[in-house]
Amino acid sequence: MALQGCAVWCSSRTTRHHLSPSAPAPAPRRPSRLAVNAIAAPKEVDALPSVGALEAELQRRVAAATAAAAAPTTTGRVVLESPEELRSTWEHRAWVGSATTLMAATLATGLSGVEGVEGALEAGAALFAAYVLADLGTAFYHWGVDNYGDGSTPVFGGQIAAFQGHHQRPWTITEREFCNNMHKLFRPAVPFAGALLLGAAAGAPAWWDVWSSSFLFLCCMSQQLHAWSHMKKSELHPAVVALQDAGLLISRKAHGAHHKAPFNCKYAIVSGWWNPLLDGDSPEASLWMRLERMIHASTGVEPRGWHEPEQAWQEQQRPGAGR
Ligand SMILES: [Zn+2]
Ligand SMILES: [Zn+2]
């Protein structure tokens, strides 16, 4: 139902920048390093290729050169990762391990403080609320990093580049080793996890320890849930498939609309429960559009989708696809 709603209004617009009354022209393309004379000219005049064929060849080589560049684009987005960049390092493992340990200690402190049936119900409600609100939290976070800033933005630049690059190379997230993928979220969570543990040690209520630690953990784990939503069922553990099919974890089908024009819906990536409410039934009813207009009116800053060429959101062809 929600997916249908989005599909209806998503398909009613082909480019997001048309929505902005003051949207500037698309950013200039990155200059090609190709020289025209790189295309070998035939010796026989009567064997000259057509202009169309030459243009197609030029486009093909521009695409190949861009993909091989493995460098940030003019928007600061990194578009290619080498196999080495997909592996987990000990530093990645240390960040994920230390953040998880801090969160687990806070959760254990909270659970150890649970007393009686009432306390157990309170802890259960706190866990469920963390699960529901983590979905909402990821929606706002994902919308923010998809639309504002770039690779050079202080503190969040790496995450912004990763999320924006994800739209061009979504399969990469499925090829990363676990800690390589997860440290991007667990690392900035360490100070928060440390503060929560200090609060628990200082005698915070049990429900708060349970809620806050599980909320933070689920927000960080959303990167893995997101990765699963990009994998085929045959590549997933049956338990994950069952949770996706039951609607408890974001599924491939539920997340798919986020990667289709106009690329501005389905931001929630834990369960996806919040997406229908946040997306609404039309562009005008979308919370995101209203927020974007409010931000534009008060700061003059436009979201990325208003002024970047749509190609920046389009998925590139996966290397080796169709072989
Ligand atoms: Zn996105
Ligand atoms: Zn995705």
Automatic annotation (TrEMBL):
Membrane among the record's keywords?
A: yes
Against InterPro entries, the record matches this protein to:
Lipid_desat (IPR019547)
Task: Identify one Gene Ontology CC term for this UniProt entry.
Answer: membrane
Q: How is this protein positioned relative to the membrane?
A: Multi-pass membrane protein
Kindly list the biological process annotations in GO that this record carries.
Answer: fatty acid metabolic process
Q: Which residues form the Lipid desaturase domain?
A: 131-306
Q: Where in the cell is it found?
A: Membrane
Say if the entry is tagged with keyword Transmembrane helix: yes
Q: What is its main location?
A: membrane
Residues of the region (Disordered) are 302-323
Q: Which residues form a coiled coil?
A: none
Keywords in alphabetical order, please: Membrane, Transmembrane, Transmembrane helix
Q: Which family does it belong to?
A: Belongs to the fatty acid desaturase CarF family.
Protein name (record): Lipid desaturase domain-containing protein
Where does this protein come from, organism-wise?
Answer: Chlorella variabilis (Green alga)
